[in-house]
Amino acid sequence: MGVLKKIFREDLPFVFAAPALIWQIFFVYLPLFVLFLQSLDFRFSNYSGLLNNLFFNVIANSFILAFITATICLFVAYPVAYFLSMKVKRFKNFLLFSLILPSWTSFIVQVYAWIFLLQKNGPFNIILYKLGIISKSTHLLNNYFAIILGMVYCYLPFMILPIYTVLEKMDKRLIEVSADLGANKIQTFKKVILPLSSTGIMAGFLLVFIPAFGEFAIPDLLGGGKKIFWGSLIVDKFLMTREWGSGAAFAFIGILILLIFFTFFYFIYRFLIKFIRTKKLWGGYE
Asked: N or C: which end of the chain has fewer CB within 10 A?
C-alpha cells in the first residue's frame, strides 16, 4: 500500500498518462511492428523492388503536395489566428466554433461537397464564367488546382488552432512594452510575436504536412487519379493487388523519409528563429 501511495503522490501525471501509453503500444506500435515484419517477409526483395523511377516519382509527388499544402495553410492560417487572438473580443467563441464545425462531418462528405462546387455546372464554374474569368469549357475538377484547394480546405484548421493557442496564451503586455521601447508594429511582430508563436507554427506545419503526405482520398476524388501519390499507391498495394509485403515496405520507406525530413526541418526551424531574432528580414542589420 505504501508503494501505491508513493506512486499516486509522486508520479500522478504518469498514472493518468498510462492508459494512453498502453493504448498506443497495443494499437499503434504493435501493429506497426507486425507490418514491419510483413514487409521483410524473411527477405529484402520487397524493398529492393521499390528502388525504381516510380518510387521516386511517387515520393516526390507526395512531398511536393504536402509542402505546398502546409505552406499555403501557414500563410492563410497565421492572419486568421492572429485576428482571432488579438482583435476579436465578443464573438471569439462563435468564430472558433465555426472554424471546427466542418470537422464534425465526415471527411469524405467534405470532399464530395467540393466535387459538387467544382463540377462543370457547379456554382464556382458558373460564377467564374459569368465574371469572365474562365471560359465555358474550363474544368475545375480533376486537376492539381482542385487537389490543392481540397487539401487546404480540409487541413487548414490543423494549422490555425496550434498558432491560435500559442498567440492566445502569449502575454499581451509584451506588445505594449515593445511599443514603449520605440518599436513599430513590424519590429514588434518580428521581435516579439513571431518568435513567441514559432512553436505553434512548427506544430501546425507538421500537423498538416504529416497527413497531407499520406493523403489518398482527396487526390483520387478531386484530382481524378491523374497523379500517383504515396497514400494512393499504398492503398492500391493493400486493397487492389493484395501485395502486402511490398505495400508494407513502401509504407515504412515513406515513414523513414518523413523522419529524415522532420530532422532536417527541425534544424531549419532553429536556424530561422535565430536569424529572425538577430537580423532584420526587410534588409540590413540592427
From this structure: N
